[in-house]
Amino acid sequence: MVTVADATSDRWQDVVAVMGSKGDPARCWCQFFRGTNADWNAGTSGARRAALRAQLESGPPPGVLAYDDDAAAVGWCGLAPRADYPRLARSLTAKATQDEDGLWALTCFVVPVRARRQGVSGVLLDGAVELARRYGARTIEAYPIDLAIRTPSSSELYHGAFHVFQRSGFVEVARPKSDRPTVRLTL
Length: 187
What we know:
Elements: E1 3-6, H1 12-19, H2 23-28, H3 37-42, H4 45-58, E2 63-67, E3 73-81, H5 92-95, E4 103-110, H6 120-134, E5 139-142, H7 162-167, E6 171-177, E7 180-186
């Protein structure tokens, strides 16, 4: 059974375990959407890691963590008020809708290889919805990939899979690209 907890400063080592030391998560630290292209290009993995740690310490939590039966961290889902993600203002998928008061954006999932294909992303999504609800979100928006249209690489699945969002009650509100719906859940 997978459980979910808010990503808070006392869970920092669990965040580190999920992000790993190789690949996109270890380079990004869930910071890609939190700045501009110039910020990203000027940044380093170490600076992004430090930024995520500061976000965990300042609150609200910038995401949730999933844990397996052995209490090992097996996943991450990042979200925040949409205004906290400047890069979304230039993203084709996010530009299809307007930002509004109380709108949160869910930007990424990280599930290490050992925990994939076990329903972790669905549990993370439900935990993220609850976190956003507790912190005053009115609506949650996401930008998943429609696997019925295209089979992405595993690194592209950080956006999440469309069918996982549909199962959690999200509805498609725009489709700026054939394989990239914009989905929302009203709380």
